[in-house]
TrEMBL record:
It catalyses: 7,8-dihydroneopterin = 6-hydroxymethyl-7,8-dihydropterin + glycolaldehyde. This is dihydroneopterin aldolase. Residues 102-125 are annotated as: Disordered. Residues 213-325 form the Dihydroneopterin aldolase/epimerase domain. It comes from the Eukaryota. Belongs to the DHNA family. It comes from Apiospora phragmitis. Residues 104-116 have a biased composition (Low complexity). InterPro entries: Dihydroneopterin_aldolase, FolB_dom, GTP-CH-I_C/QueF. Its EC number is 4.1.2.25. Keywords: Folate biosynthesis, Lyase. Pathway: Cofactor biosynthesis; tetrahydrofolate biosynthesis; 2-amino-4-hydroxy-6-hydroxymethyl-7,8-dihydropteridine diphosphate from 7,8-dihydroneopterin triphosphate: step 3/4.
């Protein structure tokens, strides 16, 4: 899914792909931020909870625009047209327009099912454009460049919606609430840190960027616990899994969810710490994309696993643990 305006004869070096924490540290403390949260729309591409390709599904778009300078002019003139902020209504409109363009050109073979663990020639799993391809178009609509900043993706006579020379950082999240069989949804997110004092420079404006995938609130019956009663029957464990420094645009969430379910469903640990460590290691050491030989650990992914037991402590919402592994972590 690469429209004609994505074609560019020359390219700048791509920004380095880092973790969310590293990108946030590079951007520094935000001082002037505009946010749009959960803008509703429809995503006509990607894979659904069963792994089927190109099924239209609801999408929630959120963005955070952080500026290098305070809102001095906007505050003094009480006017969003001052140049040191962005009109959140127009920001929302631009995101919706990008989704509408996607919906107006549905991909071929919308009923095709995506074969599990089968990578196509473009690196995605299953036929048709991935959700990350749609994400790329949303990002281009805001910045004028592809996600890693290496290529201008708008015609030269078109001005990007956001002025990169005024930005400290930009985050875009696409939440797919119906893309998980066992959980509350799947989210793709990109955060970019912009070079300070960019001025009129035409090269890649990004200092670094992060791409992540999160599967929310998987509810999986699991044999877990130290107490005698907990050894008698499975209880519901709620798992959040986040893959940071994600270096692929493939739709991998159905396979990740399947791996998490099979690991938890067959386990019998006493502690959440042991179960969480196993889950992180299984994803890093065993997960591969299609027929590609590299494991997630070899790709440099960082995995965060959060586990909660909602019924373990009667007068608390839940006890929980969180584990992060991979990347440069020990």
């Amino acid at each position: 899914m690469e429209p004609a305006q994505f074609q560019q004869q020359s390219a700048d070096p791509p920004a380095p792909l880092l973790t969310n924490w590293q990108v946030a540290a590079g951007a520094g403390e935000p001082i002037a931020v505009v946010r749009v949260h959960n803008l509703q729309g429809t995503l006509p591409v990607g894979r659904d909870a069963w792994g089927r390709a190109n099924k239209a599904q609801p999408a929630l778009l959120s963005t955070e625009v952080s500026f290098q300078q305070p809102f001095h002019a906007a505050a003094a003139g009480d006017n969003v047209a001052s140049g040191d902020t962005v009109h959140y209504g127009n920001l929302s409109k631009r995101l919706r327009e990008s989704l509408d363009r996607l919906s107006a050109t549905p991909p071929k073979n919308p009923d095709a099912a995506a074969p599990a663990h089968k990578a196509d020639a473009a690196g995605g799993i299953g036929p048709g454009p991935s959700a990350a391809d749609a994400f790329e178009m949303l990002w281009v609509g805001l910045t004028g460049r592809v996600v890693d900043g290496s290529r201008r993706a708008l015609p030269l006579d078109q001005v990007p919606f956001l002025d990169a020379g005024k930005l400290r950082s930009l985050t875009l999240t696409v939440d797919l609430p119906k893309a998980s069989l066992l959980g509350a949804g799947v989210a793709l997110a990109v955060t970019a840190c912009f070079k300070m004092g960019l001025g009129e420079e035409k090269a890649n404006p990004l200092q670094s960027y992060a791409r992540s995938l999160r599967i929310h609130s998987l509810h999986i019956p699991t044999l877990i616990g130290v107490n005698a009663n907990e050894r008698q029957a499975k209880q519901m464990v709620v798992a959040d899994v986040e893959i940071d420094r994600l270096d692929t645009t493939s739709d991998i969430h159905p396979e990740v969810e399947k791996l998490v379910f099979e690991t938890m469903e067959s386990s019998s640990f006493e502690t959440l710490e042991a179960l969480g460590s196993l889950l992180a290691d299984k994803i890093l050491n065993d997960f591969k994309i299609g027929d590609e030989p590299k494991t997630a650990r070899e790709r440099g992914w960082q995995v965060k696993v959060s586990l909660a037991k909602p019924i373990a402590v009667p007068f608390a919402e839940c006890p929980a643990v969180e584990i992060k592994a991979g990347g440069a972590l020990p």
